[in-house]
Design goal:
The protein is α+β, with helices and mostly antiparallel strands and 145 residues long. The protein contains seven helices and five strands; from the N terminus they run αααβββαββααα.
């Protein structure tokens, strides 16, 4: 993925392996991508909020599926989440664990979570660029769409 390439070029391969979180090294070593647009999506932090109360997260983990759909890239995950009409959003991790959130509660709490953690927007422009106007509004918590 882009992270690995940019980290290696900044630090050199040996330094990168020394600085890289140990949990992520296996991602590099597990093989080649099956598709040219495939990316490894890693959950690094869980922003504390009422909607995810009870989940503790101490290490980086690879996201494998969202509501039983494989996660092929960050843009594909964003599309799956923004188009989700199920009552719950289920994120399955490579280690077999899962995070299950109420879709309605997660969407209603997004603006508050962003504000609480001083995050200017739900996603970067390069990710939101691929979304339709309706998906972009839903992803940014606009209930008027």
């Amino acid at each position: 993925t882009d992270y690995y390439g940019s980290a290696r070029s900044r630090h050199g391969a040996a330094e990168w392996r020394r600085r890289c979180p140990a949990e992520l090294l296996h991602v590099l070593w597990r093989g080649f991508r099956e598709r040219v647009d495939e990316q490894c999506v890693v959950l690094c932090h869980l922003l504390v909020a009422d909607v995810n109360f009870g989940y503790k997260f101490h290490t980086a983990a690879v996201l494998k599926a969202f509501n039983d759909q494989p996660i092929l890239s960050l843009p594909s995950l964003v599309k799956l989440v923004t188009e989700c009409s199920a009552e719950y959003m289920e994120f399955k991790l490579e280690d077999g664990s899962q995070i299950v959130l109420s879709t309605d509660a997660a969407r209603k709490s997004e603006a508050e979570i962003l504000k609480q953690h001083n995050i200017p927007s739900a996603m970067s422009p390069d990710i939101s660029h691929g979304l339709s106007a309706a998906q972009h509004s839903a992803a940014n918590g606009d209930a008027s769409q």
